[in-house]
Amino acid sequence: MGVALQIGFLRLTGAPLNSVEMIPPQVLAHLGAELGIAPPRLASIRALYRRHRTLFEHQVAAKQALGLRDLTEHGERALNGFLRREAGDKFLVDELEQAARAWLRDHHYVQLPTRRLRSSASGARRHYDGGLLAGAVAAVGIEQTKAWPLELSETMPNGKTRLEWLRDSPASRKTKGLADHIAKIDFLKKLGADKLHLGLAAGTLKAQARSMLYRKPATLKRMRGERKTVEIACFLRLQLLRLTDDGLGMIDYRIADLWRQARTRAEAAVEDELRRHQALVLQLASLVDDENISASVVRDQMRTMLAPFLPAGAHGPSTKVGRVRRELATAGRGASELLRAASSISLDLPSTHPLAQALTTLDRVAASEMGRLPEGTPNPFGRTWAFLIDQPDREAAFGGYRAATLMLLKRSLRNGQASVDHSLEHRAPEDRLIPKAQWKKERARFVRNLAVSATPETTIRWIKDELSTALKAIDAAVSRGDIRIENNRLVVPKLKAAPEDERLKAIRRELFASVGKIQLPDLLIAIDATTHFSWALLGRTPRSEHELIILYAALIALGSDLTAADMARMTLNIEADAVGEMMRRIEANGRLPWANRLVLDHFRTLPVTKLWGGGIQASADMMSLDATRRLWTARHDPRRRTPAVGTYTHVLDQWVILHDQAVVLNRRQAGAAIEGALRHEAVDLHRVAVDTHGHTHFGMALANLVGFDLAPRLAGMNKRKLYLPRGLDVPASLRPIVSETVSTSAITRGWDPLLRIAASTKSGWCSATYVLDRFGSAARGDEAFQAGDAFGRLLLTRFLGAYLGDPAFRGMNDALLSQGESVHTLQRAIYSGPIGARHGRTPEQMAAISSGLTLLTNVIMTWNAVRIGEVRARRPNTFPDHHIMHIAPNAHEHINTKGVITIDVSPHRDRLLGGKPPAAGIRSVI
Length: 926
Fold this sequence. Notes:
Helix content: 55-70%
Number of strands: 12
Strand content: 5-15%
Distance between the termini: 52 Å
Shape: globular
Structural class: mainly alpha
Radius of gyration: 33 Å
Number of domains: 5
C-alpha cells in the first residue's frame, strides 16, 4: 500500500509524498480495493513509515515505476539556462515558475519544492534584467541613465512633471496638439530612447514598463538599484514607440480630414457651377430670342458670357476625384505642417522611392523660399496628378506637388513602404515577419503548423474541386427557387422569421421568475466563490473582506459607466480614493483576461450550455461605447451620431464572450476578427461569423491559412459576383453572375510569401490586425497581396456555395450574428453611459474598460446559466430541453445594477478568503 500511495501521489503531483497530517480515508479505501487488501481506517505518513529507510526505498521504487529521476547538477544548469531564455518572453516570476515545472515534467525530472523553483525563477529574472541594464548603459552611457530620474521629475511651466506630460494622451488632433506630440518625441530622443534597442518583444517591453505608467513622479527620486534604470529605460522606449505610432496616426487622420474638406469644397463648387450654367443657358436663350440685335453683336455678347466658363490654366479631368485633388492643392499651410511633422519623425524610405524624391524636392523648394515649383521638376506620382504639376502657374503647381506628396505619404504609411524604426505598428514589414533566413531554414515546420499544403498546385486543385461543388449547390438553389437571378443580378429573398411561440414566452417568464431577483454584487460574489476570479485579479488570495469589497466596487466601476465616486456614494463605508486606487491596480497588472478565462471555463462546464451550441463556432462584431469628443481614440459613430470608441467581441455559440479587444471606429475589422479567434486558448474555433465590416478577400485567405473560416454576412448581395478561375464548368443559369477573373498564376507566384505572412501571424511574430492593415488595398502590386486576394475571392465563392445553396446554413450563420448582437444588448445595459474625459486615454485604460465589461457580462450569463440549470434539474417536465435551448442566458431585467448596493461577503467568506480568520475591526457587510 505504501508503494502504491507513493506512485499515485508522484503521478498526480510530480513530487514524492514526504509528509501529510492525515491521508484521506477515500484514498486508503481506493488503494485497498485496487490491491485487494484491508486498508487502515486512519493513517499518516509517520504511521505508515515507522522505518525512514522504507519511505526512501518506496520513493525510489515509485520513481523507477514512472520513469522519473532526481534533478542532477547538470540538469539544474540546463534548467537555469532554459529559465534565462524564457525570461525574455515571461516577465512575471510566477510565469517563469510554471515554465520551470513544465520543463521538469517534459524532461522526466521529479518536481522541485516551490521555494527552490521560485529562487531559480527569481535568479533568471535578475540575470535577464542585468543584461537589459548593461544594454541600456551601453546604448546611452552611464551619465545619461543617472540623469533620467531628474529629467523626468522636472516641472514644466504648466505645473506637470515631464513624466506626467509624457504619459498624457494627445490633447487634440489639430496643429497645436500635433506640435506638442512631436515635442514629446523630440524630448524622448534627447534622452536617448531612439538608441535603446533592448531586443524585447512588445509584450515584454510593456510588462517591464507597466509600473512606470502608473508611478507617481515623487517616487522617482526614491527608487534605488538596477530595477529603477531598467524600468525607466523600458518606459522611455515604450513611450517613444507609442508616441510615434500616435503621431503617424494623427498625420494620417489629418490627411484624411484635409481630403474630406477638399471633397466638401469640390461638391459645393460643382453645385455653384451648375447654378451658373443654368443661369448661362437662360441668358443665352434670352439673347437668341432678341430679334433687335444683329448677329455680330450676338456673337460678341456670347463671347463675353462664355469667357468665365472657358478653361484657363489647370483644367484637369472633370471627374469628382480630379476636382477634389484640385481643391486639396489649395491646402497650403495645413499640408506643409503635416509634411514637416512627418519629416521630423524620421521616416525610413529607399532613396529610389517616389516619396523620398518628393520630400527632397519639397525641402529644396522650402530652402529656396520661392514657393514655386521649378520648371522641369520630374513628376514621381503618375499621370493622375500631371494636370496639376505640369501647369504653367508654378505656384499652383507647387500646391499640387505638395498635395500629391501628402496622399503618397498616407498610402506609403498604410502599405508599409514608409516605415519608422522606433515604432510598434509602422516598422518595416520585414522586421515584423519571420526573418527570411529562419523561414528558409524552418519552412517545413512552419507550414506543418499551418496545416496547409506547402505547394500552391495542391491548394489550387483542392479549391477547384470545392468550387465545382459550390456551383452545383447554387445552381440547385436557383432551380428550387430559393434564390433568383434577375437582370444579371443575384436576388436572395430574406429568410422568413420563425413564428413566435407564445408558449415559449410564457415559459421564459416562468423560468426567470424561478431564477429570482438579485443584486449585481451578490451575483459577483456567488460566481467568485466558485471561480476565484478575484484571486486572479489580485495575483494572490485576498487579505481581508474589506479588500474584496473594494475590488468588487472597482470592477463594477471599470466595467460600467459608474465612476469611483459613484460607487462610493452607492455603497456604505468605502472611500472613492480606495476604489480609484484599486481600479488603477487592476489596469496596471493586466490580469483581467485571466479572470475572464476562469469564468469562461466554468461556464462551459455547465451541462445546460451543451443545449445552446457545440462550442466550435463564434460570431465577431464591434459594439460602440459613447465617449466624450475630447477622448483621443474617439471617432464619430455614424449610427448613434456621437463620439464613440469600440470594443470588439467574439461570442461563442454557447453565448459566452471568448475574447475582447478595444478598437478604433470606422476601420475595417477583419484583422480584429482573425486576431481574436487566434489569441484566445479556450476553444478550437472552426468558423467565425462576421458582418461586411469584418470581411476582406485577403482576410478570408489569412483566416483559412491559420486554421478557421470566416463566414461573412455581406451587404449588397445583389451586386456580388461568383469569382472563379478560367476553365471550370459553369452552369448556364449562373453565367450572368460569374466573373472568371481570378488568376491562379498570381496564387502560384505569391504562395510562398503568403505562407510566410500566415505563419508569422499564427506564431505571434505579428498581429492579424497589422497584417490586414499592411496588406489591404494600399498594397496592390505586392505578390503576397495578389495571391491572398485571389485565394480569398475563391474562398468567398466556396462559402457562397453553402450560404446560398443551403437556407439552413444561411439561417444558422445569421443567427450567430444575431446572438452576438443580443449579447451587446446586455453589455449596453451594463455600460449605458459615456466614457468620461479622464478615463480611456491610454491603451491600458481602454483594455481595462473593454475587459471589465466583458467580465461583468460573462459573470451575469454564468450566474443565469447556473440558475437555469438548477431550475431545469428540479422541474425537468416544466422546462424541457427543447425549450431551454431557445432561452438565452443574457437576461438582465431581474438583476439590480444601479441604486444603493450592499456587498455581503459573509455567505461565501471561507471560499473567497481561503479559510482565513476575519480581520479585526472589518465589517463583513458594507
